[in-house]
Write a structure and sequence with these properties.
The structure is a single chain. The model has no long low-confidence stretch (mean pLDDT about 95). The chain has about 800 residues and is an alpha+beta fold. The chain contains 20 helices and 43 strands. The strands form 12 sheets. It has a 10-stranded antiparallel β-sheet with strand order 1-2-9-10-11-12-19-16-15-14, covered by helices on one side. Strands 6, 7, 8, 13, 17 and 18 form a 6-stranded antiparallel β-sheet that branches. A 6-stranded mixed β-sheet has the order 22-39-40-43-41-42. The protein is globular. Helix 8 runs parallel beside helix 10, helix 9 runs antiparallel to helix 10 and helix 10 packs parallel to helix 12. Bound molecules: alpha-D-glucopyranose (2 copies).
Length: about 800
């Protein structure tokens, strides 16, 4: 069942009922100011950091679901209703939500009035604009009242949820004209405030939540809205809100639009006040002025569209399959941008107050994002590398505002260092910019301990090379990519963090997944060394890689698949000899991707085992058989009920690894089959089962052992976005940036047909035509560049050339 449809022309998903199985959200904002917005206008806004600078309040785990947002109420004398349906939930005569690229547009109609809300964050400003347009579609005069509503959050969202004894006495506001200012804590250490304004005269306002709603009332029918009269309340303590009352009369056919702005403003410390206790509003008023007419809003909106059109023109494909085109050209890249901006911090499943930026997560996000805005990827890489320690280890997370490593979670996730190589390699391959390797980069954010980034890569590499266990395989530490495989923690009591409990430096437990990473990224490290002319280091690196390659085929091979790990007692995890958890997906995907066992035949055997043991119609499960009891020696993985999350869920993130691995073996049919199973556009019509947004990937789909097999959770913020984009764009469609230029080597289904790709790459445009011979899955028979046949798959790079016409016959 569907709850809407794609509009590819407009690059929108059109939701046609407010009652989607779960809130279906969108993200507004490209750089610093961000909002989450659901299909019923729920959500919240923040500046840079969802934990530390939260502007509006959201209530999690709420009933009714998805409550608190930026709401507009209409009281037309007969009914109280909202264009986005929530929170009144008054049935509408018409409802539509169009989630677009960086904006959302809502249309609600009731009793002859139509109300549209266009919400977006301009590309270069710290505010969200809501343009509300109301039209009288009836043939009688309409008199009605419009009320706006936002609830302020006291900036630190964590404190906001807990520290009531303090915060309920701190709330402060100011009202000037049509703007309501939120200045809680501004009197002391903060130099920033929020405002909610509109560009017309108002008939009243409210800032005291309890008076606006009415005591013991909910926001579905606020007293003020129902009574049709604002109370002009000025908050002092408790829970401040911002609400405007605007009385409107419209002739038949007439319409009116009002621009509301939710803004964030910082003042220099010595310029905070206009007079004693009164905020200096100069910057806020300038911001209000920037969008005070429909024309100015239109201009800002066009700029946003142009910004995105430009980004989405960097990689564009035309294949015979609309769903591939739609995902590649629009939604998958869009999600990559969102994951790049958010890491795993703020979604409807990530509270925004827990994790900041993940080291491994952000490094992987770069893989899917780097072609879009390489400069920002470069900056991010330096931020991430600056949280590394001198011995190559890394903080597992850091806070985006301070950019400092998070000491609560600390270090000891032994895959982390290698992801830095992955990110830098992707950046250098994309841009050819070797200068990044010379950037002086601190350790643990201590500028006095800075070395060139290249040296950070070396330390990453060496960390793994020097932290090996009894089988010559890399030590796992607290966990590797699978955060829930905690082989050194042994947590027995509730409340202990599975990851940070116990020693991280277990000298025995080893990871075959990290072994796969080491081979893949160790080779990429060696390639970079070579390119820089450091042949000795490249040779040394390849020798180290060879050791781990051999150890993997030796101690890491179980007969029909790769073993997952050795636990702290040197028992196998992910082996035929285990009672539960006999086979895991991660080493199969990653080791084959790295090329391990390809010539020896193990690779093919491993992938065949994946198909036989782990495949379902909704995707490939992370392991089988599921753990049915808690294993102290394995940790969090066995804490989930069978079929969910890391315990035999379909963890979407590593499905593309297997798909990529299949392309390594040249099996295009199977690679594409795997791609389709978790790809949103292909499962749109089972939205009642899948439940999360049909335009983006989710972290997890419940596996075969779960009660709700096929149901997704944790949408949006997942490494799945980056990895599927890498998979479809670089391996299946096959346009892969190498250090020496763009390689074109597709691996597609036998009946895929011809296709085209337009790719901007290092200051040039490549128009690529792939002539696909039916029955072929992989293999370049001919590569023709501007009429000349060329050997191999890499389009030779010519200095100064800005356009390449490439034909590939496969
Ligand atoms: C979550 C984490 C990611 C981890 C994965 C598997 O998605 O964000 O870092 O690799 O789970 O545990
Ligand atoms: C929890 C989650 C896991 C996630 C991890 C991040 O363990 O279950 O999916 O990767 O937290 O730290």
């Amino acid at each position: 069942m569907k709850f809407g449809h794609f509009d590819d022309e407009a690059k929108e998903y059109v939701i046609t009922t407010p009652k989607t199985p779960l809130p279906w959200i969108n993200y507004l904002g490209t750089k610093e100011f961000f909002s989450l917005i659901s299909n019923t206008c729920g959500g919240y806004s923040f500046f840079k950091d969802a934990k530390l600078l939260r502007l509006t309040r959201y209530r999690y785990n709420n009933v009714p679901m998805d409550n608190n947002g930026k709401y507009y109420y209409i009281n037309d004398g007969k009914d109280v209703w909202n264009p986005g349906w929530q929170p009144s939930r008054t049935p509408l005569d018409f409802y539509e939500c169009r989630h677009g690229i960086g904006y959302s547009r809502f249309t609600g109609k009731k009793n002859g009035l139509s109300a549209e809300v266009l919400a977006f964050v301009p590309t270069d400003d710290a505010c969200e604009i809501n343009k509300v347009t109301i039209k009288n579609e009836s043939d009688t005069v309409k008199e009605f009242k419009l009320f706006s509503y936002v609830e302020w959050c006291f900036w630190n969202a964590d404190d906001d949820m807990k520290n009531f004894q303090r915060l309920l006495s701190c709330g402060e506001v100011e009202i000037k004209g049509s703007a309501i200012y939120h200045k809680t804590e501004y009197r002391e250490r903060r130099n920033h405030f929020g405002f909610f304004s509109c560009n017309c005269e108002i008939n009243g306002f409210d800032t005291i939540r309890d008076d606006f709603l009415g005591l013991y009332n909910d926001n579905d029918r606020p007293d003020v809205v129902v009574n049709g009269k604002a109370l002009n309340t000025v908050a002092s303590g408790w829970l401040p809100i911002a609400s405007h009352e605007i009385d409107i009369t419209l002739q038949p056919g007439e319409s009116k639009s009002i621009v509301f702005i939710l803004g964030y403003v910082e003042n220099p410390d010595d310029d905070k006040w206009e007079s004693y206790g009164v905020i200096n509003k100069k910057r806020a008023e300038e911001m209000q002025e920037r969008y005070n007419t429909d024309e100015k809003v239109e201009e800002a909106f066009s700029a946003l569209k142009a910004y995105w059109d430009n980004l989405l023109s960097i990689y564009r494909t035309t294949t015979g399959d609309d769903k591939v085109n739609r995902m590649v050209n629009i939604w998958n890249q869009y999600q990559c941008m969102v994951t790049f901006n958010m890491s795993r911090s703020a979604s409807y499943y990530e509270s925004g107050i827990g994790r900041g930026m993940g080291f491994r997560d952000s490094c992987q996000d770069i893989l899917g994002f780097v072609h879009l805005i390489p400069d920002r990827a470069r900056e991010r890489i330096i931020d991430i590398a600056s949280t590394q320690f001198e011995d190559g280890r890394a903080y597992h997370q850091y806070q985006p505002l301070t950019k400092k490593g998070n000491s609560d979670i600390g270090s000891g996730f032994n895959d982390d260092p290698l992801w830095l190589i992955a990110a830098v390699s992707a950046y250098v391959r994309e841009t050819g910019d070797l200068s990044i390797l010379d950037v002086q980069t601190p350790f643990d954010n201590d500028e006095s301990k800075s070395t060139p980034l290249m040296d950070h890569l070396k330390r990453s590499f060496n960390f793994t090379a020097t932290h090996k266990g009894p089988h010559g395989l890399p030590l796992i530490g607290r966990a590797d990519w699978n955060d829930c495989l905690n082989l050194n923690c042994f947590s027995e009591h509730p409340g202990e963090s599975f990851q940070t409990f116990g020693p991280s430096e277990g000298p025995v437990a080893e990871s075959i997944f990290i072994a796969g990473m080491f081979v893949k990224y160790g080779n990429e490290y060696a390639d970079i060394c070579e390119l820089r002319g450091d042949k000795a280091e490249a040779d040394r690196a390849r020798k180290e890689v060879k050791l781990v390659y051999d150890a993997t085929l030796d101690a890491g091979w179980d007969g029909k698949w790769f073993v997952r790990a050795y636990d702290a007692f040197s028992h196998k995890v992910g082996s035929e000899e285990c009672e539960e958890g006999k086979i895991f997906i991660e080493p199969q995907g990653f080791c084959v991707m790295a090329g391990i066992g390809v010539p020896e035949g193990n690779a093919k055997t491993a992938l065949d085992s994946v198909k036989e043991k782990l495949d379902t119609r909704y995707g490939i499960m992370i392991l089988q058989p599921a753990y049915t009891k808690y294993h102290l020696e394995l940790g969090e993985i066995s804490s989930y009920p069978p079929g969910y999350k890391e315990n035999a869920g379909i963890f979407c993130h590593n499905n593309p690894w297997v798909s990529i691995a299949e392309t390594v073996l040249g099996r295009g049919d199977r690679a594409f089959e795997i791609y389709k199973k978790t790809c949103p556009a292909y499962i749109e019509n089972i939205s009642e089962i899948h439940r999360t947004e049909p335009y983006v990937y989710s972290q997890m789909v419940a596996g075969r052992d779960a009660k709700f097999h096929g149901e997704a959770k944790n949408s949006w913020l997942t490494g799945t976005a980056a990895w599927t984009f890498v998979n479809i764009s670089q391996y299946i469609l096959g346009v892969y940036p190498t250090l020496k230029g763009l390689s074109v080597d597709p691996c597609v289904p036998k009946d895929f047909g011809n296709f085209k790709i337009d790719r901007k790459f290092r200051d040039a445009v490549y128009h690529i035509n792939v002539e696909h011979t039916s029955g072929s899955e992989k293999g370049v028979k001919k590569l023709i560049v501007d009429g000349k046949e060329v050997k191999g798959t890499v389009v030779p790079f010519e200095e100064g050339k800005t356009e390449y016409n490439v034909t590939v016959v496969m």
